[in-house]
Every structure is written in C-alpha cells, then in structure tokens.
Specification:
Two copies of one chain form a homodimer.
Chain A lengths: L7 E8 L1 H4 L7 H11 L2 E9 L3 H13 L3 E5 L10 H9 L3 E3 L1 H12 L6 H4 L3 E3 L3 E3 L8 E4 L2 E4 L3 H11 L10 E7 L7 H10 L4 E9 L2 E10 L2 H17 L4 E3 L3
Parallel strand pairs in A: 1-2, 1-3, 3-8
Antiparallel strand pairs in A: 4-5, 6-7, 7-8, 9-11, 9-12, 10-11
Helix pairs in contact in A: 2-7, 3-4, 8-9
C-alpha cells in the first residue's frame, strides 16, 4: 500500500489482568482501530499487558518511540490495582501531580454522590505536564501527555473519550476498505487473489475464510487510502471470480 | 500472588491486519487465556501484529525468549496474505518444508473437494523440524515447533486445536478466581479493597466497575492458585462490604 504519502501510525497498550485471564472480552482494540482509521491513522500494533509497572513501562516506551501516537486503555480508576498513571509517569521519567481541572471536575461530580475522598482524588492524578480528555460519562477524565492518550478500560467510557478527540489529531487519508465474498474456498482462488493484488498497485487484498451452515466461504477485503484504486480492484476481482464460475456477493457475506 | 511455586507463562501473538483494522473482533485472546488457565499456565502478554514479516519475527523472538510457551493465531491459510509460517521460520532461522503427514491429511481432505493444488499444499508447509496439531474442523493442521504453537485465525478452528492440546503441556496450579459484586462505587471501597488484599497473602483482588441501568456498580475478583486462600479472602471481603452497608451478590453481578 505504499503510495508515497505520509502514513500516520498509532499503537495501543491494553492494560489489564482481566483481559489476560480471559475473564473479560476486550472491546477496545476494535473500537480504537475503527476510530483511528476515520482519523487517517493506522493502528500498527497492540500489546495487552498485565497490571504490572515493568510491563507497562516497556510497552509504552517501545511503542511511543516508533509510532506517531500511543493510546492506552485501562487502569485509571480509584483502586489499588489502577497503576497506569504511575507506570506511565515512570516510563516518561516525570512525577505525578493532581491536575487542578480534574480535581474540580471530580469535586463537582461527587458533590451529589457523597463528596470527594482520597481514593476519588486519585483519579485526578496525572503524569506531570499532562492535559485532560473529557469524560462525558463518569467523573474521571482521560489524560493526554504529548502524543500519549490514556483512556478508560470500560469500553463505553473509552468511546466517549475518543469522541472528544475526534478531529483533533493530525493524520493522513483514511484507508478505504471494501469487500466481496461468497461460498468459495479461498484455496481455490489463491492464485487469482495473488495475481489481482499484484496487478493493482497500492492496494492490499485480505482473504478471510469462514465456515457457516456446514459450508466453506470467504470474504475478500480490498484496502487502500485511494478509493478509486479500491473500486477498480473490487471490479476486477469480482469479474475474475465470476468468470471462474463463482457467485459473488458485493460487500461480502 | 507469589506462593513460592513455579509459575508457567505463555505469550500469544495475534497475527492479522483484520484485527488491527477493526474489521474483525478478536476472540482468540479470551479463549486462549481461559484454556491456558485450565492447563495451569498464565497468559503473561499478548501482541497483535500486522501481516508483516518483520513485526512477526520481532514479536515471536522477544516473547518466546521470556515465556515457557508461545502461541500464535492467524495467517496459516493458503493465500498470499498468509505469511505466518515463513515469518516464524525466519524468526527461528530454519527453512520451510512440506510436512509429509500434513500433505497426506490435505490430500485426504481435498480428495472429495476438487483435489490438492499448489495453493492447498501451501497449508502443509511448516518450519523445518515441526510437528503437527490436529485440526478436526478443516484440513489444514496447526503446527508445533518446540514450545511454539502455531494456530488458525478462525476462532472455532483454534478451539479445536486447543482441544487437541489439552492436558499435553506442563503447567502449575490453575489460578482460581471467584467474584463478589454489587451496586457499589469502587471509589467508596478503595481503601477496604487495598487493605483486604494486603491482609491475604498470595491473593490478588481486581476491581471492575460497570455502569448499567443508569447506576454504578463493581465486581471484585479474587485470584490465587490456592482455592482455600481465595475462599477466605472472598468471605472476609464479603463480610467487610456488608458491614459497610453494601448489599453484595456472591459471584458478582
């Protein structure tokens, strides 16, 4: 997909024992990925790490060095297992401070909910020099430090934080992706797919098999930042698959 | 959770542009995590990487060096975007060969499905020296090379491969986890949770807030390989939460 244009990349660190134990099905990877694409930023890599300072520090420092943006989810609540802010401050070699605007927000939020406490004021702690990301759902804000975005673990709170960031990050062209598919075994069309991808510069074709109703099928996804290239490739691929005798469904099945 | 016993760890590399693009919701992290725990092995870290040789090589070599086991999912099909076997062989600095048993399996599988082709025979390619993992669902086997387990991307095929491996890997005691929860704001009980965890050696307490029906609640998960320790901690935690005036549901809500 090299079109000679600047590609903006991001990495995501998912922080949480609950994901690694299998207790909780992660939903943040998919929503962050989809949101990033709309901003013209590619999600280049994801790591899921435990609630462990050394693991967080390693992931944050490795990934922020080689991506334009770094996002984290999880571990910013008020309890003892919420160590994200301290770990990221350690990674950045800065101190931790109570952000005055976050304190004011939490004081307002908890005014009718029993008042601010020491545990609650923990959610105002940020790596020194950070700004805040609005949380429209609950009291505790997200945190921005340079190009690092520290977000909640609860997916719909993260969604609100992403919404608050929409349109504020520099990116390139979003990747356009369109699909065709049908009841076709991918192994029958492997050469056709490879040849079609080669014939269309700047596009990538992914082949995703599935098994449903006892039958084998596949969806073929064509991706490029250039929509016209995607459309040409989809048209070519569809024509070739139909010429080979397959009944193909636009959009995939 | 240091009980002075040997902890067996695994890492998982999820290989696939479709996860990083947000097109596909990953389900393999949760199922591999849950399966590993039954084997007495902890999932210590996960990376999601693109269909890119350098990214796969880096992840595989870093993670296999520091874990007892390494699992991968994705990229073992017959099409041009399936590069996992070649990338892992590159990481291991071994060649790629057609495994004779895999060839025989594929020939049998495709005997009634149009016969073997060059594309289909790609699914018999393994890093030199590998053995096979049975695939009860479709023709292409998984691959074992030392303590590396190369599995499918389609979750129910991966499930079958895990099933074939059940009980064959050395591990320690599985982590037992039990939950209590209720309509309680975690920020109100942060000190109580921290104190309870400290009072119960060898257990970890995780606090997982949720927002439902317009109300705030949380589940508290107690984990340890020692079931008696988990039970003691759960009983203590429940008693303290009830003494503090909360109505607590065993098992969480």
């Amino acid at each position: 997909m090299d079109l000679g244009e600047r590609i903006w990349t991001a990495a995501l660190v998912v922080i949480g024992d609950e994901i690694l134990s299998g207790r909780t099905q992660d939903k943040n990877v998919a929503q962050v990925a989809a949101w990033l694409n709309v901003q013209g930023i590619r999600l280049a890599e994801v790591r899921v790490v435990a609630d462990d300072t050394a693991a967080i520090v390693e992931a944050v420092n490795t990934l922020r060095a080689r991506n334009d943006y770094l996002f984290t989810t999880g571990g910013i609540g008020p309890t003892h297992d919420d160590i994200t802010v301290d770990a990221i401050a350690a990674a950045l070699e800065v101190g931790v401070e109570h952000h005055p605007d976050a304190m004011a927000t939490l004081e307002r939020y908890y005014a009718t909910r029993g008042g601010i406490t020491e545990a609650r004021s923990r959610m105002a702690r940020v790596p020194a020099g950070a700004s805040l990301i609005v949380n429209k759902v609950s009291g505790a804000p997200g945190i921005r430090w340079g190009n690092i975005f520290i977000m909640a673990g609860v997916p719909h709170i993260t969604a609100g934080m992403l919404d608050a960031l929409t349109g504020t990050l520099e990116g390139g062209r979003p990747v356009v992706s369109k699909s065709v598919g049908g009841w076709v075994a991918e192994s029958e069309v492997a050469d056709l797919l490879r040849g079609t991808e080669k014939a269309h510069e700047g596009v990538a074709i992914g082949s995703y098999p599935f098994f449903r109703e006892g039958r084998v099928g596949a969806n073929f996804v064509v991706r490029s930042p250039d929509e016209a290239s995607v459309d040409h490739c989809i048209a070519d691929l569809t024509a070739q698959l139909e010429a080979a005798g397959y009944s193909i469904v636009a959009g995939g099945i």
